[in-house]
Design goal:
Radius of gyration: 24 Å
CATH topology of the largest domain: Phosphatidylethanolamine-binding Protein
Number of helices: 3
Shape: elongated
Largest sheet: 5 strands, mixed
Number of strands: 10
CATH architecture of the largest domain: Alpha-Beta Complex
Strand content: 15-25%
């Protein structure tokens, strides 16, 4: 458990205690509307508000401190890469709209892998997203896939593969612009206990389309 997670746990404990105090003094004030009970009740309410703000600030700092790309990188390959260019068969505009073949080395401790294809030259457009427990994907195996179809010129299409400690529900966005891979990896790197470190390692491949 990270320092951020410990701090958030302590804050949650104080929120519960302050909430109990607020209920106690509010109930007591209803029976005896004296100034002491009134100020005690208001004080508990103020403490709760401040604790919620503190929890939010810690969460933001924890989120922003995610060193996802500091994790070690593993090798990944694709038979649909012809040098620096993606094969036309994976494209949406001129090909068969088949997700590319991918394979990578297994990562110790990973329960699953999140795979994305993103076009950084086109508003961080998401073309593919999937979760798998395998260390390879056959060509056309991914349902959530829309092949490259650049409006003009040559675009780069990056495939990212993240080894996860525990499964994460992937954001629903597909065939649409995104806020970028850093935002996605920050979401993936946050575990179910709100702790950081769900991404063990990452790998990927990149290619251009169409071929010049």
């Amino acid at each position: 458990m990270s320092v951020y997670a410990i701090i958030k746990l302590i804050i949650k404990i104080f929120i519960v205690l302050a909430s109990g105090g607020f209920v106690f003094f509010t109930a007591k004030r209803m029976r005896d509307p004296g100034s002491v009970n009134k100020f005690a009740s208001f004080g508990c309410f103020l403490v709760i508000a401040l604790l919620f703000i503190a929890h939010f600030v810690v969460s933001v700092k924890q989120y922003d401190s995610t060193p996802v790309f500091d994790a070690y990188r593993f090798e990944a390959t694709s038979s649909d890469l012809n040098g620096i260019y993606w094969d036309v068969s994976i494209s949406h505009d001129k090909g068969d709209d088949l997700s590319p073949q991918l394979s990578w080395e297994p990562v110790d401790g990973a329960t699953c892998y999140a795979v994305y294809m993103i076009d950084p030259d086109g508003q961080e457009w998401i073309h593919m997203k999937t979760l798998t427990t395998e260390t390879s994907l056959d060509k056309g195996a991914v349902e959530d896939y829309i092949g490259p179809y650049p409006p003009s010129g040559v675009h780069t299409y990056n495939v990212y593969i993240f080894a996860l400690r525990e499964e994460k529900k992937l954001p629903a966005i597909l065939n649409a612009p995104s806020t970028g891979i850093n935002e996605i990896t920050s979401i993936l790197n946050t575990g179910s206990d709100s702790d950081i470190g769900n991404v063990i390692a990452w790998g990927g491949v990149a290619g251009k389309y169409p071929e010049e």
